[in-house]
Amino acid sequence: MIGYYVHHVGQGHAVRATAIAAQLDEPVTGLSSLPRPAGWRGPWVQLPLDDTEPVDRATTDADGRLHWVPLRHEGLRRRMARIASWINRAGPTAVVSDVSIEVALLARLHGVPVVSFALPGRRDDEAHRLGFAASSLILSAWPAGAAGMLEGLDDAARSRHLPVGAISRFATAAGRHAQPHPTTAPKRRPRVLVLNGRGGGGVSDESLERARRVAPGWDWTLVGGDASWVDDPWPLLRRTDVVVTHAGQGAIADVSAARRPAVVIPQRRPHDEQRHTAAVLEAGAWPAVVAESFDSADWGELLTQACESDGSAWRSWNDGRGASRAAAAIAAVSAGGAGATSGAGAAAEPLGARASDTPPPATAAGDGPSLELAS
């Protein structure tokens, strides 16, 4: 049995967990304050929230040693007790933390090997260093060639760090465009799809109207956020010519799976998470144009520039194998305990290491699309 902690802010952690769990032969129990995701195959332990008011904001980080441990918070106490009780009953062979330093430490204090996900950004604070030190393996959902995504790892943590490539809920699409490029399809206007996440800081309706006035030759569609959330954006992604998106990992993974050129606008997040991602995309050969803000963007120029990019260049970011690589690495740790990191690295070859190989056959991920079909 493997335990999988899923952070409850946004939807990206749950999407990633569902994709990876579907690739594991071992049973996987989800541990989260989120409802059980559609397509989740194993048990799901619903956790109490640990961020409901009242919260003593002066005590949340234990003087910088941890990230979220507010004193005298009933939700935190019940949450950690429920995880500890499950560990005691289930006797897991590994726990995946995506992401919580505190949950990683709790599992390690029970003698359970931990696989932690590392997010982009500068992660050299004391809490991250402690969590990484307690982890048998550190996974990241970007390709090994994306230098600069993660800063602050010491040598020991770096030796246990394995980038596996982007992880999307969607199979990667074949070819550059599902439809002809707008320059060869004059009977319709080019389409731009704007993606909002659920983490806050998205594009407002007013901002979208201003963009329409700046670039009137484009058909604009806004999805995401609480008001216009779309459970399955895949048809929209495949029909559009350019995607405008924040730099969250899940959004970039889905855009890259669709092989669509993108305008990427990083949002403010702790540890400069999205700014690191945007900077790496801008410096690389991926089909992404970076803008500082939605409201100040020169949309006519940006959309034209993005539309001239080759969407198939996303293959080196997302080849459709990220979930299976992560699952292989987690399975190796589960099979061998804390000493399995070398085996995990061998089991999950980094993206791009064998670019000439034929992709594995497509396999279904729960009730959703295939995760293994590479273009």
Automatic annotation (TrEMBL):
SUPFAM superfamilies: UDP-Glycosyltransferase/glycogen phosphorylase (SSF53756)
Gene Ontology MF annotations: hexosyltransferase activity
Location of region: Disordered: 339-375
Xref: InterPro entries: Glyco_trans_28_C
Compositional bias (Low complexity): 343-375
UniProt domain Glycosyl transferase family 28 C-terminal: residue ranges: 236-282
Protein name: Glycosyltransferase
Species whose genome carries this gene: Herbiconiux sp. A18JL235
